């Protein structure tokens, strides 16, 4: 029997990259899974088709994490349509890098709206909708632990904010056996950060293992945190970074 049989999940930003791999992993473990997307409608429907091919329920919700109503509404929609909600994976995020002096107010507002406010609002709504024993798993970044060079002020600010949110959620929801954990990936080969991109070699050199991670390697950790075996892990940051922080 799969470990997540009978559970339901929402993965934000599940159309591509790590979010898609996480959605498929949770379905493989037995969960019914809803995903959100903004632009990649065809890719989102492909993920849903794969979830359904595993014999699970899946559906895609167009919900922009930058919009407060969408960020919270997707959680309500997933809980309503799936019948209940056990797992929220806050994965949707964007990276805007550049010298601190070049970042515009619009950059600051957009990154904080998606990477921080959207995660806060989804988690706030999930706090009221998750069943006891549920999971909030948030995708942060290794940059919150170690900033390896210039250009990361805004992105690091946004991902570091998640450390505080995650700890506070764990404290608030622990009495209902709901755990909250922050997964901090290192360089992972996705559209956001391709292993063949111009800055890839420098990132590889910063890891102990000398390589990019795969989306599946992050999904594997999320799958573990979602399951019963991880019931005593909460309020913590877990790195899946090839030794980027070592
Ligand atoms: P990708 O850019 O490859 O995929 C991003 C996903 O998020 C897509 O499904 C996209 O959907 C969705 N998304 C983007 N903006 C929004 C939004 N406003 N509302 C809802 N969904 C949105 O990113 P990754 O898979 O690489 O990154 C996933 C997470 O991991 C992010 O939080 C990122 O910051 C973090 N991370 C990534 C690292 C890396 O090296 N790749 C390293 C450390 C952390 P659509 O296409 O439909 O718009």
3D structure, described in words:
This protein has a seven-stranded parallel sheet, sandwiched between helices. Helix 1 runs parallel beside helix 2 (41-53), helix 1 packs across helix 7 and helix 3 runs parallel beside helix 4. It has helices at 17-28, 41-53, 68-82, 105-129, 153-173, 200-206, 215-226, and strands at residues 8-11, 32-37, 58-62, 85-90, 130-139, 179-185, 236-240. Helix 2 links the parallel strand 2 and strand 3 (58-62). The chain contains seven helices and seven strands; from the N terminus they run E-H-E-H-E-H-E-H-E-H-E-H-H-E. The protein has a single domain, classed as Rossmann fold. The protein starts with 7 loop residues before the first strand and ends in a 6-residue tail after the last strand. The protein is an alpha/beta fold. It binds NADPH dihydro-nicotinamide-adenine-dinucleotide phosphate (NDP). The site of NADPH dihydro-nicotinamide-adenine-dinucleotide phosphate (NDP) has 31 residues, from helix 1 and strand 2.
